[in-house]
Amino acid sequence: MKLERLLSIIILLLNRRMVQAKELAERFEVSVRTIYRDIEAINGAGIPIVTYQGTNGGIGLAEGYRLDRNVLTNDELAAIFTALRSISTSYGNEQHRHLMEKINSVVPPQYSEEFQHKTSRVLIDYSPWDGNERLRPKLQLLKEAVDSCRIAGFIYSNAEGVVSHRIVEPHMLIMKGRQWYLKAYCQTKEQFRLFKLKRMKELEIAPERTFIRRELPMQERTTGQSPRNSSRATEFVLRFQADSRHLAEEWFGIEELVPLDDGSWQVRKAYPEDEWLYRFILGLGHHAEVLEPPHLREIIASRAEQAAKIYRIDKAT
Length: 317
Hints:
This protein is of the alpha+beta class. The chain has helices spanning 2-15, 21-28, 32-44, 74-91, 94-106, 112-119, 135-148, 245-252, 275-283, 294-311; strands at residues 49-52, 58-61, 150-157, 163-176, 179-186, 191-196, 200-210, 233-240, 258-259, 265-272, 288-292. It folds into four domains: 2-67, Arc Repressor Mutant, subunit A (Orthogonal Bundle); 71-119, no CATH class; 135-220, Roll (SH3 type barrels), CATH 2.30.30; 227-311, 2-Layer Sandwich (Alpha-Beta Plaits). Helix 1 (2-15) packs across helix 3 and helix 4 crosses helix 6 (112-119). The protein is extended, with a radius of gyration of 26 Å.
């Protein structure tokens, strides 16, 4: 990711007087041109990094300038370290490991034990229970495509099961709801779309085809709308059995539960009505019942009946 690379370059220059652009490009697996763009971004943030010509030249901090190591406090460094370690559970690479090592190196020895304590208090594990080994190659390919502005192509199956071939301009990788997505401009649909990585196959990056990054429309600068603000949202009411309160709390939170006179619990929510919602409610099994709206209750009842037919012992063989 670009932010991680910029921070890595800054920390590297804190410890070295000069470094070659080619060395940085090889270290971070990007082009020399990308490194010079990074240098411009760092300069724009107020840290004067300059390039020196000649045999012993390279990239370094401007003469007479010294970046105060206390520009980041130990608590802030610990927060960055913790965030990197958490991200690495799902999106780990060699750059993350190098960056964490560099952060460790700038912590004063007298604070080392305290730093280790602070960075071991919280770990947000983004990795799925079934692992993500099949996703890692896709993530790596798409990361390279995003960094180098390369066109990507893949076969995609959408939520309705419609399969199509897409040619896209990769814009950013997004993790939302423990799932990886790609925000990209779809040349087929001529608009920005969000693609779920698990629904991609035959992913290919065209090394000879590049694109100029488009300005992301304002409405596309968030990962998604709140369901209550979506025009496709349907408000529904679920009733959980008295002994299923723990499931209601797990999915919706304690604050959302309303006690009923018979000891059961009611939840009122609004989600986009689609296949995901139907599967979600069916997944609650006998623990929850749809009370409203009537059409959603009928859909769930019909699908539950179809599922029950599959398991009936007396069905024809």
